[in-house]
Every structure is written in C-alpha cells, then in structure tokens.
Design brief:
By secondary structure, this protein is an alpha/beta fold. The chain has 3 domains: 4-139, Response regulator (Rossmann fold, 3-Layer(aba) Sandwich), CATH 3.40.50.2300; 145-182; 198-299, no CATH class. The chain is 56% helix and 14% strand. It is built from 12 helices and 8 strands. α11 crosses α12.
C-alpha cells in the first residue's frame, strides 16, 4: 500500500558497499518504488530485543540486510539473524566476506532458518533476484488499488495545502469566482442529469452521482419490513463501519513515529495507532461487511 521500498541495513563500513547500494536503488526505482534505506553501523543485544519488540507491533521494512562482522562494538550478524528470525518473518539477507557456504553452516549450526545468504563479492547479483521476487509478490491488483488510493489521497491533500499556502499571501478573488462558478456549473449539470433520469438503477450504479452512504440508506428503505436485512444496513452495521473506516483511511495523514508506530492524524488533533492487531481487526471487519453484502443477495 505504498510507493516506497524500505530497507533496514546494518553495515559498519558503508563505503565498501556504496556502489552496490546505488545500483540497488536504481533497480528499485526502475520498478516504480522510492528506495528508502535506513543505515545502521551497529547494534547492541538490548537494541536487537527492542527492535524485535517494535517490529512485532508494526514493521515498516520490506527487507532487512546485515553484514556478519559489524565490529567489536556491535553484535554480529549471526546474533541479529537469530533474534529477529524468532519473532518476525520479514525477508532477511545475510552477507559477508566469508563464502556463502560458511555462512549457511553457521546459521544451520545455530538453528536459524529462512535467511537468504549472499557473498560480498556477488552481493548485487545475488540480492536483485530476492528483491525482484519480493516486489512481484507485492504487485497484485489489491496492492495496486491500495497504493493508488493512498498516493492520490496524499497528492490531493498536499495539493490543497499548497494552494492554501499560496493564497494566504496572494489575492484569491478571481480564483474564488472561478471555483464558485465551476462548482455551481457542476451542480447544475448533475442536477439536470438526476432530474432527467427515470431509471433508478442507472443512478445507483453511478458512483459519481450516488455515494455509498446514499446507496446503503436507500437500500435499507427498499427492504421495509425485512428487519433481518435492514439490520445489515443500519447505522453502526458492519457495512456502515467499513464505509466510515474507508473514509478515515483515505483522507487522514499517516506518520511513522520514531518509536516504531504507524499513526493516522485525524481531525481535531486525534491520533490513532495502526499496528498488526489493528490490521487484523480491520481485515475481520471487512470480511464481516462482505459477508453482510452476500447475505443481502440471498432470498
């Protein structure tokens, strides 16, 4: 549901892999993502535990990459892999100047599974297929819809804010006249279309004329006397809750906080955290709403 591809990368000497990083960034951009690489030169044992706890609540990273030897002041890559793999299932890429078979044996001897192993010399050539496969798994129609909705919502919000900032120091009289005329013209055109329509179905199927709120309430009126089905459409129903949640997700600003939380900023300064539990709740709510729509179609 995003246009960025985020990597957490542990390496104590980034100058040694800078060429590979630049090539990987170009590869990610070529696939329509913004590369966002968070660089860390080391990590303590306590920091690994804190990271694991944070990522178990909300994990913004698509892949985590780490060198085996991070210097004497840091835990090594084997300890990172061992601790993280026990709590999260993000793809992990482990590399070193050692030959890959030695790294794989170290992981095997320490009962660490599910970690990609690459050599430093062949790093780019070995990592690209892993990243490409991950991007392909992200590239289905549902993800694309989510990305499009999120991106256009951000574009719309930022565009409105940019124009308001511009108008705060500029004369907006002529623009106000234009916008009012355009809105009234659109309303008149829509009014004319609605007044001329004699087929209720043609109105209901047109999302530019009737929004979900109107369809839901109108459908409820159609079912006068069928209390069981009316309950599926009433205010507070699963369908109504899904509608309200969609509106919030579409128009609120998201933020990834420094303490590892994903939050949405709503109206009146309200902030809501979205973590794995919230995502699970939302998915279950949506499944309930979809079941409700299916039940409406049953005799």
């Amino acid at each position: 549901m995003k246009l960025s591809y985020k990597i957490l990368w542990y390496e104590d000497q980034f100058t040694h892999v800078e060429s590979s990083i630049r090539r990987l960034e170009r590869f990610i951009r070529s696939h329509g993502f913004i590369p966002d690489i968070v660089r860390k030169t080391g990590i303590s044992s306590d920091d690994i535990d804190n990271l694991a706890d944070s990522l178990s609540s909300y994990n913004p990273y698509d892949i985590i990459i780490f060198d085996y030897d991070l210097g004497s002041q840091s835990e090594n890559g084997l300890n990172i892999a061992s601790k993280l793999r026990s709590s999260i299932y993000t793809d992990l890429i482990f590399y070193s100047g050692k030959i890959p078979s030695e790294l794989r044996k170290m992981l095997f001897d320490n009962d660490v599974e599910g970690v990609f192993v690459v050599g430093r010399e062949e790093f780019y050539d070995d990592v690209v297929p892993i990243v490409e496969d991950h991007i392909k798994r992200m590239s289905d129609i549902n993800n694309l819809r989510g990305v499009s909705m999120s991106a256009v919502s951000t574009i719309e919000r930022d565009l409105r804010e940019s124009m308001i900032d511009f108008l705060s120091v500029a004369d907006g009289g002529d623009i106000l006249k234009y916008v009012k005329e355009k809105l009234l013209s659109n309303l008149e055109a829509q009014k004319s279309t609605i007044e001329k329509t004699t087929d209720i179905c043609s109105i209901i199927e047109n999302p530019l004329i009737t929004n979900l709120q109107i369809v839901r309430v109108a459908y409820k009126k159609c079912l006068n006397g069928d209390n069981l089905k009316c309950n599926l459409l009433k205010d507070g129903s699963a369908i109504h809750r899904a509608q309200m949640e969609r509106n919030k997700l579409a128009h609120q600003k998201d933020e990834y906080t420094e303490d590892g939380k994903m939050v949405l900023h709503g109206t009146n300064g309200r902030v809501k955290e979205y973590n794995f539990d919230e995502f699970k709740r939302l998915r279950n709510e949506l499944l309930t709403a979809m079941d409700a729509v299916t039940n409406l179609s049953k005799n």
